[in-house]
């Protein structure tokens, strides 16, 4: 188990460093965990054949799109209170 800890910690610190440099005003630990989870989830979807793998370019575009969507959504989600669900009259 000790053999796995060092590489995992190195990757974790690498991701945290990128997050700190790119987003200095956010919780680097929380965002780096989020980014790692997203990429890990995408990797498993890829390995399970759930994503289009027709070309390396398609795979790269899917990963970029997913990460970009997270960052595009984050500012509006963090600053705007959630609206209550719309009521319907039936």
Automatic annotation (TrEMBL):
InterPro entries of this UniProt entry?
A: MT1864/Rv1816-like_C, Tet_transcr_reg_TetR-rel_C_sf
- Keyword Lyase appears in the UniProt entry: no
Q: Which UniProt keywords apply?
A: Transcription, Transcription regulation
SUPFAM superfamilies, per database record: Tetracyclin repressor-like, C-terminal domain (SSF48498)
What region holds the HTH-type transcriptional regulator MT1864/Rv1816-like C-terminal domain? 7-68
- In Pfam terms, one family for this protein is TetR_C_33
Q: Does the keyword Cell membrane apply?
A: no
Name the UniProt record assigns to this protein = HTH-type transcriptional regulator MT1864/Rv1816-like C-terminal domain-containing protein
């Amino acid at each position: 188990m000790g053999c796995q800890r060092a590489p995992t910690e190195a990757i974790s610190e690498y991701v945290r460093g990128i997050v700190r440099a790119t987003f200095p005003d956010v919780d680097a630990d929380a965002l780096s965990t989020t980014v790692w989870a997203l990429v890990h989830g995408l990797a498993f979807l890829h390995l399970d054949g759930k994503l289009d793998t027709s070309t390396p370019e398609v795979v790269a575009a899917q990963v970029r799109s997913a990460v970009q969507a997270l960052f595009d959504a984050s500012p509006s989600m963090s600053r705007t209170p959630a609206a209550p669900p719309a009521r319907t009259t039936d």
